[in-house]
Protein backbone atom coordinates (compact mmCIF):
# COMPACT_ATOMS: atom_id res chain seq x y z
CA UNK A 1 0.00 0.00 0.00
CA UNK A 2 2.77 2.42 0.93
CA UNK A 3 4.65 1.66 -2.28
CA UNK A 4 1.55 2.32 -4.37
CA UNK A 5 0.70 5.50 -2.51
CA UNK A 6 4.28 6.82 -2.79
CA UNK A 7 4.26 6.33 -6.57
CA UNK A 8 0.75 7.62 -7.25
CA UNK A 9 -0.38 11.18 -7.93
CA UNK A 10 1.72 13.88 -9.56
CA UNK A 11 5.03 12.27 -8.54
CA UNK A 12 6.48 11.24 -11.91
CA UNK A 13 8.85 13.91 -13.36
CA UNK A 14 8.20 12.47 -16.87
CA UNK A 15 4.63 13.84 -16.68
CA UNK A 16 6.10 17.35 -16.56
CA UNK A 17 9.12 16.94 -18.86
CA UNK A 18 8.32 14.33 -21.48
CA UNK A 19 11.95 13.78 -22.54
CA UNK A 20 12.42 12.00 -19.19
CA UNK A 21 9.91 9.33 -20.28
CA UNK A 22 12.30 8.07 -22.97
CA UNK A 23 14.96 7.21 -20.42
CA UNK A 24 12.58 5.86 -17.75
CA UNK A 25 13.98 8.53 -15.41
CA UNK A 26 14.34 7.26 -11.83
CA UNK A 27 13.33 3.75 -13.09
CA UNK A 28 9.74 4.83 -12.44
CA UNK A 29 8.08 2.60 -15.06
CA UNK A 30 10.02 -0.45 -13.98
CA UNK A 31 9.17 0.21 -10.32
CA UNK A 32 5.45 0.70 -11.01
CA UNK A 33 5.31 -2.45 -13.13
CA UNK A 34 6.92 -4.45 -10.35
CA UNK A 35 4.49 -3.02 -7.75
CA UNK A 36 1.60 -3.88 -10.11
CA UNK A 37 2.75 -7.50 -10.39
CA UNK A 38 3.15 -7.81 -6.63
CA UNK A 39 -0.28 -6.38 -5.84
CA UNK A 40 -1.93 -8.49 -8.54
CA UNK A 41 -0.42 -11.64 -7.04
CA UNK A 42 -1.62 -10.61 -3.59
CA UNK A 43 -5.18 -9.95 -4.79
CA UNK A 44 -5.31 -13.16 -6.83
CA UNK A 45 -4.28 -15.04 -3.67
CA UNK A 46 -7.14 -13.43 -1.73
CA UNK A 47 -9.58 -14.32 -4.45
CA UNK A 48 -8.39 -17.94 -4.67
CA UNK A 49 -8.58 -18.34 -0.89
CA UNK A 50 -12.15 -17.11 -0.87
CA UNK A 51 -13.09 -19.24 -3.84
CA UNK A 52 -11.87 -22.35 -2.09
CA UNK A 53 -13.44 -21.10 1.20
CA UNK A 54 -10.00 -21.15 2.87
CA UNK A 55 -10.91 -17.80 4.43
CA UNK A 56 -13.17 -19.72 6.90
CA UNK A 57 -16.66 -18.81 8.05
CA UNK A 58 -15.71 -15.16 8.69
CA UNK A 59 -15.24 -14.54 5.00
CA UNK A 60 -18.62 -16.04 4.03
CA UNK A 61 -20.31 -12.66 4.37
CA UNK A 62 -17.42 -10.61 3.05
CA UNK A 63 -17.47 -8.27 0.08
CA UNK A 64 -15.26 -10.69 -1.84
CA UNK A 65 -17.70 -13.54 -1.23
CA UNK A 66 -20.50 -11.34 -2.61
CA UNK A 67 -18.49 -10.40 -5.67
CA UNK A 68 -17.65 -14.06 -6.28
CA UNK A 69 -21.31 -15.01 -6.08
CA UNK A 70 -22.01 -12.28 -8.67
CA UNK A 71 -19.27 -13.83 -10.79
CA UNK A 72 -21.16 -17.12 -10.71
CA UNK A 73 -24.46 -15.56 -11.81
CA UNK A 74 -22.94 -13.01 -14.28
CA UNK A 75 -19.51 -14.36 -15.32
CA UNK A 76 -19.15 -11.92 -18.21
CA UNK A 77 -19.64 -8.87 -15.97
CA UNK A 78 -17.41 -10.00 -13.10
CA UNK A 79 -14.18 -11.61 -14.37
CA UNK A 80 -11.34 -11.88 -11.82
CA UNK A 81 -9.70 -8.70 -13.13
CA UNK A 82 -12.80 -6.60 -12.43
CA UNK A 83 -13.15 -8.02 -8.90
CA UNK A 84 -9.45 -7.41 -8.21
CA UNK A 85 -9.88 -3.86 -9.51
CA UNK A 86 -12.82 -3.17 -7.19
CA UNK A 87 -10.96 -4.51 -4.15
CA UNK A 88 -7.82 -2.59 -5.07
CA UNK A 89 -9.83 0.61 -5.57
CA UNK A 90 -11.46 0.30 -2.13
CA UNK A 91 -8.16 -0.42 -0.44
CA UNK A 92 -6.26 2.31 -2.20
CA UNK A 93 -8.83 5.07 -2.24
CA UNK A 94 -10.68 4.23 0.96
CA UNK A 95 -8.27 3.13 3.69
CA UNK A 96 -5.36 5.57 3.82
CA UNK A 97 -7.60 8.60 3.22
CA UNK A 98 -9.93 7.67 6.09
CA UNK A 99 -7.16 6.79 8.57
CA UNK A 100 -5.23 10.00 7.76
CA UNK A 101 -8.41 12.01 8.45
CA UNK A 102 -8.92 10.26 11.81
CA UNK A 103 -5.41 11.16 12.89
CA UNK A 104 -5.85 14.82 11.88
CA UNK A 105 -9.20 14.98 13.68
CA UNK A 106 -7.81 13.50 16.91
CA UNK A 107 -4.77 15.80 16.75
CA UNK A 108 -7.00 18.85 16.49
CA UNK A 109 -9.29 17.58 19.25
CA UNK A 110 -6.50 17.11 21.80
CA UNK A 111 -5.20 20.56 20.87
CA UNK A 112 -8.70 22.01 21.45
CA UNK A 113 -9.99 20.37 24.66
CA UNK A 114 -13.10 22.61 24.71
CA UNK A 115 -14.16 21.14 21.33
CA UNK A 116 -13.43 17.64 22.61
CA UNK A 117 -15.57 18.28 25.70
CA UNK A 118 -18.46 19.62 23.61
CA UNK A 119 -18.36 16.53 21.35
CA UNK A 120 -18.33 14.24 24.38
CA UNK A 121 -21.28 16.10 25.93
CA UNK A 122 -23.22 15.70 22.67
CA UNK A 123 -22.50 11.96 22.63
CA UNK A 124 -23.54 11.55 26.27
CA UNK A 125 -26.79 13.48 25.78
CA UNK A 126 -27.76 11.88 22.45
CA UNK A 127 -26.55 8.29 22.89
CA UNK A 128 -26.27 8.04 26.67
CA UNK A 129 -23.87 5.95 28.69
CA UNK A 130 -25.65 2.62 28.42
CA UNK A 131 -25.07 1.81 24.74
CA UNK A 132 -22.19 2.01 22.31
CA UNK A 133 -22.97 4.26 19.38
CA UNK A 134 -23.84 2.66 16.06
CA UNK A 135 -23.51 4.01 12.54
CA UNK A 136 -27.13 5.21 12.40
CA UNK A 137 -26.44 7.48 15.42
CA UNK A 138 -24.09 9.72 13.40
CA UNK A 139 -27.11 11.64 12.04
CA UNK A 140 -28.05 12.60 15.64
CA UNK A 141 -24.64 14.16 16.23
CA UNK A 142 -24.37 17.45 14.32
CA UNK A 143 -21.39 18.69 16.33
CA UNK A 144 -19.43 15.51 15.59
CA UNK A 145 -20.26 15.99 11.91
CA UNK A 146 -19.07 19.61 12.16
CA UNK A 147 -15.75 18.35 13.58
CA UNK A 148 -15.40 16.06 10.57
CA UNK A 149 -16.19 18.91 8.16
CA UNK A 150 -13.68 21.20 9.87
CA UNK A 151 -11.02 18.47 9.67
CA UNK A 152 -11.77 17.93 5.97
CA UNK A 153 -11.45 21.70 5.46
CA UNK A 154 -8.11 22.20 7.23
CA UNK A 155 -6.53 18.85 6.37
CA UNK A 156 -8.00 17.43 3.17
CA UNK A 157 -6.48 13.92 2.97
CA UNK A 158 -5.66 14.49 -0.71
CA UNK A 159 -4.70 18.22 -0.75
CA UNK A 160 -4.25 18.32 -4.55
CA UNK A 161 -7.26 16.02 -5.16
CA UNK A 162 -6.45 13.63 -8.02
CA UNK A 163 -4.65 14.84 -11.15
CA UNK A 164 -7.00 15.48 -14.09
CA UNK A 165 -6.25 15.88 -17.81
CA UNK A 166 -8.26 18.34 -19.88
CA UNK A 167 -9.78 16.29 -22.72
CA UNK A 168 -10.27 19.46 -24.80
CA UNK A 169 -9.46 23.20 -24.80
CA UNK A 170 -11.41 24.92 -22.02
CA UNK A 171 -11.53 28.09 -19.92
CA UNK A 172 -11.09 27.77 -16.15
CA UNK A 173 -11.45 30.81 -13.89
CA UNK A 174 -10.75 33.02 -16.91
CA UNK A 175 -7.60 31.09 -17.91
CA UNK A 176 -7.32 29.36 -21.26
CA UNK A 177 -6.38 25.70 -20.70
CA UNK A 178 -5.31 23.77 -23.83
CA UNK A 179 -6.51 20.19 -24.27
CA UNK A 180 -4.16 17.53 -22.85
CA UNK A 181 -3.03 19.70 -19.92
CA UNK A 182 -2.40 18.11 -16.52
CA UNK A 183 -4.63 19.95 -14.02
CA UNK A 184 -4.13 19.97 -10.27
CA UNK A 185 -6.59 21.60 -7.83
CA UNK A 186 -5.05 22.95 -4.64
CA UNK A 187 -7.97 22.14 -2.33
CA UNK A 188 -5.76 22.77 0.71
CA UNK A 189 -5.21 26.42 -0.29
CA UNK A 190 -8.82 26.99 -1.41
CA UNK A 191 -10.14 25.70 1.91
CA UNK A 192 -7.88 28.11 3.82
CA UNK A 193 -8.59 31.12 1.59
CA UNK A 194 -9.37 34.14 3.83
CA UNK A 195 -11.71 35.44 1.10
CA UNK A 196 -13.89 32.37 1.65
CA UNK A 197 -13.48 31.60 5.36
CA UNK A 198 -13.32 33.70 8.54
CA UNK A 199 -10.24 33.02 10.65
CA UNK A 200 -9.28 30.28 8.17
CA UNK A 201 -6.37 28.68 10.01
CA UNK A 202 -8.29 28.10 13.29
CA UNK A 203 -9.99 24.79 14.07
CA UNK A 204 -13.59 25.94 14.63
CA UNK A 205 -16.27 23.28 14.00
CA UNK A 206 -18.85 25.89 15.10
CA UNK A 207 -18.63 27.51 11.65
CA UNK A 208 -20.54 24.48 10.31
CA UNK A 209 -23.27 24.84 12.96
CA UNK A 210 -24.19 28.35 11.87
CA UNK A 211 -26.81 29.43 9.32
CA UNK A 212 -25.78 29.00 5.70
CA UNK A 213 -24.33 26.04 3.88
CA UNK A 214 -20.64 26.08 4.70
CA UNK A 215 -20.43 22.37 3.81
CA UNK A 216 -21.03 23.29 0.16
CA UNK A 217 -17.64 25.06 0.15
CA UNK A 218 -15.77 21.87 1.09
CA UNK A 219 -14.08 20.29 -1.92
CA UNK A 220 -12.03 17.64 -0.10
CA UNK A 221 -13.83 14.93 -2.11
CA UNK A 222 -13.59 16.82 -5.40
CA UNK A 223 -16.69 17.97 -7.28
CA UNK A 224 -18.52 16.96 -10.42
CA UNK A 225 -18.56 13.70 -12.31
CA UNK A 226 -15.19 12.47 -11.04
CA UNK A 227 -15.78 13.40 -7.39
CA UNK A 228 -15.12 10.73 -4.78
CA UNK A 229 -17.82 8.03 -4.95
CA UNK A 230 -16.85 6.93 -1.43
CA UNK A 231 -17.67 10.29 0.24
CA UNK A 232 -20.85 8.96 1.90
CA UNK A 233 -19.07 5.86 3.18
CA UNK A 234 -16.13 7.97 4.38
CA UNK A 235 -18.44 10.28 6.39
CA UNK A 236 -20.06 7.26 8.03
CA UNK A 237 -16.75 5.55 8.78
CA UNK A 238 -15.27 8.75 10.22
CA UNK A 239 -18.42 9.50 12.23
CA UNK A 240 -18.60 6.02 13.74
CA UNK A 241 -14.83 5.72 14.27
CA UNK A 242 -14.33 9.14 15.83
CA UNK A 243 -17.59 9.02 17.81
CA UNK A 244 -16.67 5.60 19.27
CA UNK A 245 -13.19 6.80 20.27
CA UNK A 246 -14.71 9.79 22.09
CA UNK A 247 -17.51 7.78 23.68
CA UNK A 248 -15.23 5.05 25.06
CA UNK A 249 -12.06 6.92 26.00
CA UNK A 250 -10.96 10.17 27.57
CA UNK A 251 -8.19 11.81 25.56
CA UNK A 252 -5.55 14.38 26.36
CA UNK A 253 -2.15 15.55 25.21
CA UNK A 254 0.97 13.89 26.62
CA UNK A 255 2.10 17.23 28.07
CA UNK A 256 1.30 20.95 27.97
CA UNK A 257 2.78 21.40 24.50
CA UNK A 258 0.35 21.48 21.57
CA UNK A 259 0.48 18.52 19.19
CA UNK A 260 2.63 19.45 16.20
CA UNK A 261 0.40 19.84 13.12
CA UNK A 262 3.18 19.84 10.53
CA UNK A 263 2.42 17.94 7.37
CA UNK A 264 4.67 15.17 6.10
CA UNK A 265 5.69 14.69 2.49
CA UNK A 266 2.94 12.74 0.86
CA UNK A 267 2.09 10.89 -2.31
CA UNK A 268 -1.59 11.47 -2.97
CA UNK A 269 -2.51 11.63 0.72
CA UNK A 270 -0.75 13.82 3.25
CA UNK A 271 -0.49 12.72 6.86
CA UNK A 272 1.17 14.30 9.87
CA UNK A 273 4.95 14.56 9.75
CA UNK A 274 5.14 13.01 13.23
CA UNK A 275 2.60 10.33 14.17
CA UNK A 276 0.14 11.45 16.86
CA UNK A 277 0.89 10.44 20.45
CA UNK A 278 -1.80 11.02 23.09
CA UNK A 279 -2.87 9.77 26.50
CA UNK A 280 -6.17 8.00 26.92
CA UNK A 281 -8.13 6.36 29.69
CA UNK A 282 -11.32 4.33 29.54
CA UNK A 283 -14.58 6.14 30.29
CA UNK A 284 -17.19 4.71 32.72
CA UNK A 285 -19.31 3.39 29.82
CA UNK A 286 -16.58 0.80 29.14
CA UNK A 287 -16.73 -0.50 32.73
CA UNK A 288 -20.51 -0.81 32.43
CA UNK A 289 -20.52 -2.55 29.06
CA UNK A 290 -17.43 -4.71 29.50
CA UNK A 291 -17.21 -5.26 33.28
CA UNK A 292 -14.82 -8.22 32.94
CA UNK A 293 -12.39 -6.47 30.64
CA UNK A 294 -10.99 -3.94 33.16
C1 LIG B 1 -11.97 10.80 4.07
C2 LIG B 1 -11.89 9.90 3.13
C3 LIG B 1 -11.74 10.19 1.67
C4 LIG B 1 -11.29 11.33 1.03
C5 LIG B 1 -10.79 12.64 1.68
C6 LIG B 1 -11.35 11.09 -0.39
C7 LIG B 1 -10.98 12.01 -1.36
C8 LIG B 1 -11.01 11.76 -2.71
C9 LIG B 1 -10.60 12.69 -3.72
C10 LIG B 1 -10.06 14.10 -3.46
C11 LIG B 1 -10.76 12.10 -4.93
C12 LIG B 1 -10.44 12.72 -6.30
C13 LIG B 1 -11.57 13.60 -6.75
C14 LIG B 1 -11.20 14.35 -7.99
O1 LIG B 1 -10.56 13.77 -8.87
O2 LIG B 1 -11.52 15.51 -8.11
C15 LIG B 1 -11.28 10.79 -4.70
C16 LIG B 1 -11.55 9.87 -5.69
C17 LIG B 1 -11.98 8.59 -5.44
N1 LIG B 1 -12.32 8.05 -4.23
FE1 LIG B 1 -12.17 8.94 -2.44
N2 LIG B 1 -11.84 9.83 -0.60
C18 LIG B 1 -12.09 9.24 0.62
C19 LIG B 1 -12.61 7.98 0.83
C20 LIG B 1 -12.96 7.08 -0.14
C21 LIG B 1 -13.56 5.78 0.09
C22 LIG B 1 -13.97 5.25 1.48
C23 LIG B 1 -13.70 5.18 -1.13
C24 LIG B 1 -14.27 3.83 -1.50
C25 LIG B 1 -14.37 2.83 -0.69
C26 LIG B 1 -13.18 6.10 -2.13
C27 LIG B 1 -13.14 5.85 -3.49
C28 LIG B 1 -12.70 6.74 -4.44
C29 LIG B 1 -12.61 6.44 -5.87
C30 LIG B 1 -12.94 5.12 -6.56
C31 LIG B 1 -12.16 7.61 -6.50
C32 LIG B 1 -11.89 7.82 -7.99
C33 LIG B 1 -13.14 8.39 -8.65
C34 LIG B 1 -12.92 8.71 -10.14
O3 LIG B 1 -11.79 8.90 -10.54
O4 LIG B 1 -13.91 8.80 -10.86
N3 LIG B 1 -12.75 7.24 -1.50
N4 LIG B 1 -11.43 10.59 -3.34
- Biggest sheet features: 2 strands, antiparallel
How many DSSP E strands? Answer: 6
Shape: globular
User: What would CATH call the homologous superfamily of the largest domain?
Assistant: Cytochrome P450
Proportion in β-strands: 5-15%
Look up the CATH topology of the largest domain.
Cytochrome p450
CATH architecture of the largest domain: Orthogonal Bundle
- CATH top level of the largest domain? Mainly Alpha
Given as residue ranges, the uncertain stretches (5+ residues, pLDDT < 50) are none
C-alpha Rg, in Å? 22 Å
Domain count: the total is 2
Spatially, the strands of the biggest sheet line up as: 1-4
Question: How would you sum up this structure, described in words?
Answer:
With 294 residues, the protein is mainly α. The protein folds into two domains: 1-78, no CATH class; 97-289, Cytochrome p450 (Orthogonal Bundle), CATH 1.10.630.10. Helix content is 45%, strand content 7%. The chain has ten helices and six strands, in the order αααααααββββααββα. It has helices at residues 2-7, 19-22, 28-51, 63-73, 80-111, 113-126, 142-154, 187-190, 231-248, 284-289, and strands at residues 164-165, 170-172, 175-177, 182-183, 249-253, 278-282. Strands 1-4 form a two-stranded antiparallel sheet. A two-stranded antiparallel ribbon has the order 2-3. The protein has a two-stranded antiparallel ribbon with strand order 5-6. Helix 3 packs across helix 5 (80-111), helix 5 packs across helix 7 (142-154) and helix 5 crosses helix 9 (231-248). The chain is globular, with a radius of gyration of 22 Å. The model has no long low-confidence stretch (mean pLDDT 91). The structure holds protoporphyrin IX containing FE.
Amino acid sequence: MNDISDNAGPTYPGDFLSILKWTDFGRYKRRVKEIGQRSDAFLQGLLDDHRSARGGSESANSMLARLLSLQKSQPGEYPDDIIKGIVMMMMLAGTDTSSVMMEWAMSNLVNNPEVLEKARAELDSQIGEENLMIEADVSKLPYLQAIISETLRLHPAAPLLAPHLSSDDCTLGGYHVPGGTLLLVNAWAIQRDPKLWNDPSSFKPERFMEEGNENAKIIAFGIGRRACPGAGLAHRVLGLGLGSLLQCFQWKRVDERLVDLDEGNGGVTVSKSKPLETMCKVRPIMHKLFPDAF
